Amino acid sequence: MTLQAGEIVTLVCSRETDIGYMLGNDQEEVFLHKNEAAGEVELEQEITVFLYHDSKGRLSATMSMPHISLESYGFAKVVDVLEGIGVFVDIGIQKDILLEKGDLPPLESVWPNEGDEVYCTLKRTNKGRLLIKLATEPVMKMIAIQPEPSMLNKNVSGIIYRTLRVGSYILTDERLIGFIHESQRRTEPRIGERVNGRVIDIKDDGTVNVSLLPRVHEGLDEDASQLFDYLMGRGGAMPYWDKSDAEDIKIRFNMSKGSFKRALGRLMKEDKIYQEEGWTYAKELFQKHNQ
């Protein structure tokens, strides 16, 4: 049997060197560094190891078992990002494995960051090299559960596993598959990023729609604070009011016109601002012109 990277095999220790052990079967040998051994290894001892290529491209062995394999999927943490190349993922052995840019979105801003987690497996190239492969949509559906009606409007947390121009897909901690439309987020999340949201719809196909926007009563104080900080940063006056164009509001404040108007309403109710001729003023710095 030819030994290949990505396999978990049982081999026999044939000899010891200064820095490790040679393990083999009837046909070939691989090197097990003492740093990769779990304690002392005896001659003729049978050892179960995982095979991988070391930093010099040599087939090597480790007694550490990976979190994922060629046959299994799991979450693995991103440990490094190389612009234009891809991201490196910790699979539970000393050697980190590359997730190539060709298997990531063209837009690098939604690549995973260090510390993010991706649901993935291993794949072997034609040259025998190990790479990370992200789980496909059919794989995600195999591990997903059906939502209960009681999940509607429930808070959920999970990992982004796919991004599209119109939105993002999330696998929640409950193993629900959810879609986040671009209108239901303020910024586009990364693949592998953990986000918090709420279920806003349960669909007939067993998936859910998720919003990352706060509920109205939760987001109002945050939005009002953002507007007031902006207003005061401009010396207490801004050229926006409740009749401003929705696109201008979106560009300047990254919020919908509805959220903008609710935030203005909160500030007016608290007697912090007033509006006049297309502008909004801070009362503590300006007096109404008609007073």
Automatic annotation (TrEMBL):
Domain of life: Bacteria
GO molecular function: nucleic acid binding
Residue ranges of every copy of the S1 motif domain listed in the record: 4-64, 69-135, 151-213
Pfam families found in the cross-reference section: CvfB_1st, CvfB_2nd, S1_2, WHD_CvfB
TM ranges: none
Annotated family: Belongs to the CvfB family.
Protein name as catalogued: S1 motif domain-containing protein
Naturally occurring in which organism (per UniProt): Gottfriedia endophytica
